[in-house]
Write a structure and sequence with these properties.
With 355 residues, the chain is mostly helical. It contains 13 helices and no strands. Keywords: Cell membrane, Membrane, Transmembrane, Transmembrane helix.
């Protein structure tokens, strides 16, 4: 006779993630904190190393001019974010605005750490939490660089001669890259290059190729960004002597060209030093050397402040959205809106604000 054991009633199922899942989450949080601490530390060092010159330069500027400069820098950084977001959307991951801003602006703090890999690594990691494949994040990042470079050289080649004839002549060699980059912007060329690189790395091809519309959208945002950067510099220049509408046009070309020269120097954090030297040289027709150095240093510090403002505001906005839910109400536990940024798994995101 077989003895039957009494049935033991099942207790409540354990809630929450398994114990083993807490360790990777803590590790990722620790890595992100270390990344932010390192980026902020190098950024602070860049300011402190030239503090005497920076303080003397700011003493020559009024508070309204500095405020206008900072506001236009924030607008310019927003143009850079929208450039990257347009490319990412065209590749198949149209992120909502606030999560996209957090990924871009927080990731961009990595440019203050020596080495060119930190921004892309940060964007790949944060994008993965939103369901964006790493290869797609990397492709959008590396496509943003030539888009910014080509649009910056193009707008400086137009604005510098228009504002001050002959001012662009010493830099004609840099403008030779414009037709080369124009060919490189053809989507068929871009897709072929990306496909070749992924095959060499043993990675699967991109699910969606880049389109001409997506590239033109990114170029449009990049041109708007350069215009805002120029207005940021013009607000500083107006305080140092030059005035008139031509100064604003000239400032767009000065900033775009000097920034492009900094972008070409990948081994220097955020183009530090190269951009300032180039800016002083391009400003020489309208400013004495001391005033040009003042303008370059003040511009540099305002941009650092703009990076911090954008990263902080984007992180706060994304956190509030994650807590409140997309419609302003608390998301249901375990539901599709309970993720960190309200983005579902997978590569394609159809919700959120339009591009």
């Amino acid at each position: 006779m077989t003895r039957v054991s009494p049935e033991v009633p099942a207790g409540p199922a354990p809630s929450g993630p398994p114990p083993g899942g807490a360790r990777p989450a803590r590790l990722r949080r620790l890595v992100r904190v270390a990344f932010l601490v390192a980026a902020l530390g190098f950024g602070a060092w860049a300011v402190a190393s030239q503090w005497d010159e920076v303080r003397a330069g700011f003493a020559r500027l009024s508070w309204p001019a500095l405020l206008v400069s900072l506001v236009t820098v924030v607008a310019a950084l927003g143009g850079g974010m929208m450039t990257w977001r347009a490319l990412l959307a065209d590749l198949g991951s149209p992120l909502p605005l606030r999560p996209a801003a957090k990924v871009f602006f927080v990731g961009q703090l990595g440019k203050y750490i020596p080495g060119a890999v930190w921004p892309v690594l940060a964007q790949m990691e944060m994008g993965r939490a939103l369901g964006v494949p790493r290869t797609r994040s990397a492709a959008a990042f590396f496509l943003t660089m030539p888009v910014q470079l080509g649009s910056g050289l193009l707008i400086s080649a137009v604005t510098l001669p228009a504002a001050l004839p002959g001012s662009a002549a010493p830099y004609a060699w840099a403008f030779l890259l414009v037709p080369v980059l124009a060919v490189a912007f053809e989507p068929r060329v871009v897709n072929a290059v990306i496909g070749f690189g992924l095959r060499r790395l043993g990675r699967p091809p991109l699910e969606r190729p880049l389109t001409r519309r997506g590239m033109l959208t990114a170029l449009g945002w990049a041109l708007l960004g350069w215009s805002a950067y120029g207005l940021h510099l013009a607000a500083i220049l107006y305080e140092l002597g030059p005035s008139g509408p031509a100064v604003a046009v000239f400032s767009i070309g000065v900033f775009a060209l000097s920034w492009c020269l900094g972008i070409m120097t990948f081994v220097v954090p955020a183009g530090a030093g190269v951009r300032e030297v180039a800016m002083v040289a391009v400003l020489s027709p309208v400013l004495d050397r001391g005033s040009a150095i003042t303008a370059a240093l003040c511009s540099r510090i305002v941009i650092v402040l703009g990076d911090l403002v954008c990263a902080g505001a984007a992180g706060l906005a994304a956190r509030r959205r994650a807590v409140a839910g997309p419609d302003g109400s608390a998301p249901a536990s375990g539901g599709p809106g309970s993720g960190e940024e309200g983005a579902g798994p997978g590569g394609d995101h159809s919700g959120g604000e339009a591009v």
